[in-house]
Amino acid sequence: MACHCTGCQKMTSSAFSLSSLFPSAAFSVTAGEPVIGGLHGSTRHFFCGHCMSWLFTRPDGMDDFVNVRSTLLDGSQSFQPFLETYTAEKLAWAVTGAKHSFSEFPPQEEFPELLQEYASENS
Predict the structure, then answer these.
(1) With b meaning 16 or more CB within 10 Å and e meaning fewer, what string describes 11-34?
(2) What confidence tens digit (pLDDT) does each residue in 3-20 have?
(3) Do residues 54 and 72 lie in contact, with contact meaning Cβ atoms separated by under 8 Å?
(4) Contacts of 120 (CB under 8 A, 6+ apart)
(5) Which of 48, 88, 96, 109 is the most buried (most CB within 10 A)?
(6) Closest Cα partner for 42 from 22, 63, 25?
């Protein structure tokens, strides 16, 4: 997904951030100790303590999910955003080609259907 919020714009020095949504139960840090950085608040943004690269985010109120920075994953060149969030804050010229757009985050009750749609299109 692509997030157009002004926080992501500031942390990436770009028009949006790219992330892949994973169930929290399927995610673990296997080496090192990430540090909280970027914007400080209820949403926690984790960075590598050595190089300070933005690794993943645990959004406030979405404890079942973790957003991993997509460009850190193998094969990321072939990823295309399936959805985009915070389009209410997006730069007018920023275009992602995402199939679904939301002015903020999608309502939590829509996530199961969105995940199922993504899985069926990408299996």
Answers:
(1) bbeebbbbbbbeeeeeeeeeeeeb
(2) 999 999 999 999 999 999
(3) no
(4) none
(5) 96
(6) 63
